[in-house]
Specification:
Shape: globular
CATH class of the largest domain: Alpha Beta
CATH superfamily of the largest domain: NAD(P)-binding Rossmann-like Domain
Bound molecules: NADP nicotinamide-adenine-dinucleotide phosphate, ligand G4F
Distance between the termini: 53 Å
Radius of gyration: 20 Å
Structural class: alpha/beta
CATH architecture of the largest domain: 3-Layer(aba) Sandwich
Number of strands: 13
């Protein structure tokens, strides 16, 4: 019998890679999707006939219980969230409802429907915020710097609490930033690599960015979803940091992306107050040695290769848009 997994957030970057990975492992894959006025299945279009989509929302307890009953999942990966840090200042209550309380709704549904389900919570390095220790590891205290970070701290601790209160196999993966050609356009890596392609192909002249000094530990999403799966294959639930151990500034990201396309970044990058944050996370760099020892997990793709892969993919995307007439090159904004 094939194993059954339910993924919340299957339409997102990680959800699409995880669904592909689980299919490759022989799983029956179910995905929770919320109702939207326009269908946004572009990241899972290529596998849509191999996964079963179930309508539901992290704000709606009844739909979560139904999704568990319908899928009869043995593993649940909770990737759904309002995941954009900047938006969490303009929509703090909504962010808390989805990203924090949504975790409780799902855990409680699991407790009632089938407490033997193995649960993965998508925790975040944003929880470390104003970092108390360098590098950050599982034992580093949290100091979140955004409503999103605060919501993720809640999600992390309610996962630990349900593990300890009810004996659930509930695991929290503390993942550092991970990117890919499927990353949303609002996140800085993809914003930059997409802008590089548009500038190179003559559609734009500038990209407007916020803080160029902050540093992140950027890995590849395809590597990170493998770690999620490995965590749920362990006999005992636990918490794991997943990171590359390298840190780079936003400016370094910009330099690598523009130089890969043969462009001088200083001629095309402008700073804009709109993209500055009320409170910044200045430095993230993770120590994933526990994941190395226990899970046998190591990152395969490193920073420069990742950014170059994303620039190459965006060059292709923008070129195809031009060829298909989806961008009017004479009136590019
Ligand atoms: P993403 O691309 O923004 O995807 C988020 C997913 O959540 C989308 O499928 C979205 O559905 C879904 N969602 C949002 N609100 C929902 C709701 N109320 N009910 C049901 N589904 C809802 O995020 P990602 O980069 O794949 O990240 C996956 C998870 O890992 C998130 O929890 C994120 O916070 C966390 N995380 C990400 C990183 C990273 O660097 N990528 C690092 C650490 C942790 P729609 O398509 O309908 O919007
Ligand atoms: O790409 P970002 O928006 O990612 P951020 O805030 O680190 O959050 C991402 O990673 C977290 C893991 O640590 C996830 F939990 C979270 O869901 C999300 O996936 O910003 C990265 C850095 C920040 O310091 C930001 O201030 O880039 C800086 N930045 C500079 N200019 C910008 C911009 N970020 C964005 N999005 N847009 C800019 O124009």
């Amino acid at each position: 019998m094939a194993k059954r997994a339910l993924i919340t957030g299957i339409t997102g970057q990680d959800g699409s890679y995880l669904a592909e990975f689980l299919l490759s492992q022989g799983y029956d894959v179910y995905g929770l999707v919320r109702r939207t006025s326009t269908i946004n299945f572009s990241r899972i279009h290529h596998i849509q006939d191999r996964v079963t989509l179930i309508s539901g929302d992290m704000l709606d307890q009844t739909s979560l219980m139904s999704a568990l009953e319908q899928s009869e999942a043995e593993e649940v990966y909770n990737l759904a969230a309002q995941s954009f840090v900047q938006t969490s200042w303009s929509q703090p209550v909504f962010t808390g409802d989805v990203t924090a309380l949504g975790v409780t709704r799902l855990l409680d549904a699991i407790r009632k429907v089938n407490p033997r389900i193995r649960f993965y919570q998508a925790s975040s390095s944003e929880m470390f915020g104003k970092v108390r220790e360098v590098p950050q590891r599982e034992t580093t205290p949290f100091y979140p710097r955004s409503p999103y970070g605060v919501a993720k701290v809640y999600g992390h601790w309610i996962t630990v609490n349900y593990r300890e209160s009810y004996g659930l196999h509930a695991t929290s993966g503390i993942l550092f930033n991970h990117e890919s050609p499927r990353r949303g356009l609002e996140f800085v890596t993809r914003k930059v690599t997409h802008a590089v392609a548009r500038i190179k192909l003559g559609l734009d002249e500038y990209v407007y960015l916020g803080n160029l000094d902050s540093r992140r530990d950027w890995g590849f999403a395809g590597d990170y979803v493998r770690a999620m799966w490995l965590m749920l294959q362990q006999d005992e639930p636990d918490d794991y940091v997943i990171s590359t151990g390298e840190t780079h500034s936003v400016q370094e990201l910009v330099e690598v992306a523009f130089s890969h396309a043969g462009l001088d970044w200083q001629a095309h990058v402008r700073q804009d107050e709109r993209f500055m944050r009320p409170a910044e996370v200045d430095l993230l760099v993770g120590d994933s040695s526990k994941a190395g020892h226990v899970l046998g997990w190591e990152p395969q793709v490193h920073f420069r290769e990742l950014i170059q892969m994303m620039v190459d993919a965006d060059m292709q995307v923008v070129q195809e848009m031009i060829e298909q007439g989806r961008i009017d090159v004479n009136h590019a904004g």
